[in-house]
Specification:
With 312 residues, the protein is α/β, with parallel strands linked by helices. It has helices at residues 12-23, 78-83, 85-106, 142-162, 186-196, 215-226, 246-257, 281-287, 295-310, and strands spanning 3-7, 27-32, 51-55, 68-71, 109-115, 165-171, 174-175, 200-203, 209-211, 213-214, 236-238, 243-245, 263-266. Bound molecules: nicotinamide-adenine-dinucleotide and uridine-5'-diphosphate (UDP).
Length: 312
Amino acid sequence: MKQILVTGGAGFVGSHLCERLLEDGNDVICLDNFYSGAKENVWHLIGRPGFELVRHDVTDPYRIEVDEIYNLACPASPVYYQYDPIQTTKTSVFGTFHMLGIAKRTHAKILQASTSEVYGDPEIHPQPETYRGNVNPIGLRSCYDEGKRCAESLCFDYHRIHGVKAKVVRIFNTYGPRMAVNDGRVVSNFIVQALRGEDITIYGDGSQTRSFQFVSDLIEGLVRMMATEDTFTGPVNLGNPGEFTMLELAEKVVRMTGSRSKLVFRPLPADDPKMRRPDITLAKTHLAWEPKVPLDEGLKKTIDYFKEKLRV
Ligand code: NAD
Ligand code: UDP
């Protein structure tokens, strides 16, 4: 049985990860400051043998002895990460620095949840891990993008200098049950709007693309990455290469919910990437991983979740 620390464990992805790690027979310490996550996401795990919930902010130092660390703490929705951008940068930079310190002292493996945002508004399509990105270092998204880039840099320096068993995954847009109703990301926004019969807010003309991965696929990828040999740092892209415009997504959601909502167009936020699609060759070859859940199937599960949540 391993002792595993999951920072950001009460968030959308973190809660699914805690569940999976417990099912695999591990002890899980779920650490969160509940900024964009909620106790409700892990309520069902409280009282289960092996599960501990700790309220802590990763920008403050923390002391613990563990075998593995999944460092997920960081708001992922643009609405949340831009609300307090300085705290977002501190979370990625100080948070990762503190977690790497624990990994160094206890010889734990550490997996850093990085993001496709390190590619910024990409000029290469699809994006392989070798692409260095096109990030605006001073824009509204930079607290998140540059924070995550700095976190990657710290992981590689701790690996090179201190031999820390660091692993970096670059996660592409992920969706599924337990996204917050007011999360602000596109999949939950469109579903909630469609179920409530409100206007569906498309930013820009809706021609920008994203590749959407269902959360269960991501969890499998994270666990496989952690299980790789100690010297393998990545970075590895984890995402579903299926690529859709926001207009296509909106039409799909309206059709699948049977909603009468109208599509309305709103200004495109600054630096919004025009396209995004992962090259997952490395994940396929090194992790023997590829996503299994097509968008329609994942959307159905997510719609069912929100129907229940909104009682509609
Ligand atoms: P989320 O916002 O639901 O979860 C993040 C969790 O971190 C929340 O529970 C939040 O309360 C917690 N947190 C934030 N700041 C903290 C701090 N200072 N100290 C302790 N806890 C803190 O987002 P998510 O979608 O579950 O994302 C999880 C991780 O995966 C994040 O690091 C995110 O950057 C990364 N990621 C997610 C996606 C995606 O599409 N879901 C894509 C790329 C990267
Ligand atoms: N988006 C949209 N309507 C919304 C929320 C988002 O059209 O209500 C767009 C947004 O401008 C972006 C895409 O959907 O082009 C994905 O946005 P999200 O916030 O989910 O993630 P990210 O931009 O970080 O990939």
